User: Fold this.
Amino acid sequence: MENNTPNTPQMLSVSSSPHRHSGENTAYIMQDVLIALVPAALMSVVYFGWRAAMLIVLCTATCVLTEYVCRRVMKRHQTISDFSAAVTGVLLAFNLPPTLNPVFAVLGSVFAIAVVKQMFGGIGMNFVNPALAARIFLLISFPSQMSSWSLPFFYLSGNASTDVVSTATPLAQMASGSVTTPMIDLFIGLHGGCLGETCALALLIGGMYLLLRKVITPHIPLAFIGTVAVIALIAGQNPITHVLSGGVMLGAIFMATDYTTCPVNKTGRVVYGIGCGILTMTIRLFGSLPEGVSYSIVLMNILTPHIETLTQSSPFGSEVQRSGK
Assistant:
């Protein structure tokens, strides 16, 4: 007969860590991310007009609808209420040119959710960031359309012809030998680029919100941005220009910090962020493409399991710890 006296040890089933009680869940976190994206979304609409608003709404709606259809077809419980699909849609829109054909935006959104996310099991199972994978898919499939940039406030001219509104991004200027965009314009976003990457100020506001809400930690953003700045300095180029140009700020704050595809432990996050910075600058300095943020983050996403294995700490009281290794 089983002995239930207080002194008898009991066999208990304990779930994996963490064990801290918290009211947070996926929907709660994703709502915070959406709130943090609002400043950059507003500035993209201010600079690029109704086209920016249309792409953001279209990508978000398509991502949510695609997830709903996929879950119905696969006969799995619905997950659209966790807002993760909405976050993917906004982030994908942030990585698109303002004048991109809406059809391409829809294709990218379907690819992000159906192929990159749901075919691998849904939220928490994808091994790369869905929005970045979709952007790379669009870059490979439609390179000219994905490389057509517009001047801020082009929509106020009343003439939307490509010859009138097209412009070179700061990274393209850098590749040609000189950056003519003033530093203040780089900071507030008065230059060509993807919808959500131009205004560094808005991205910083969103990043500070996520830090204050403890949705992200500073390890990856600081390691990523710091590595880009140091390598630019070593290469004899302006580190501030490199940090404020292209997708470094957007990638470091919102893309590289994706819970599913980045390391869990602090050491791993630092290594991961440094790797993103090194790959980004390698592509910028030696590659044929002016920008490398998307590729660098996706490559480091793939390496995340190995980084975690190499940087995981020894459990307290383990043989490795007792031996002093």
User: Anything to note?
Assistant: The two ends are 45 Å apart (CA to CA). Residues 16-21, 160-165 have pLDDT under 50 and may be disordered. The chain is about 60% helix and 0% strand. Residues 26-149+169-311 form a domain with the Ammonium transporter fold fold (CATH 1.10.3430).
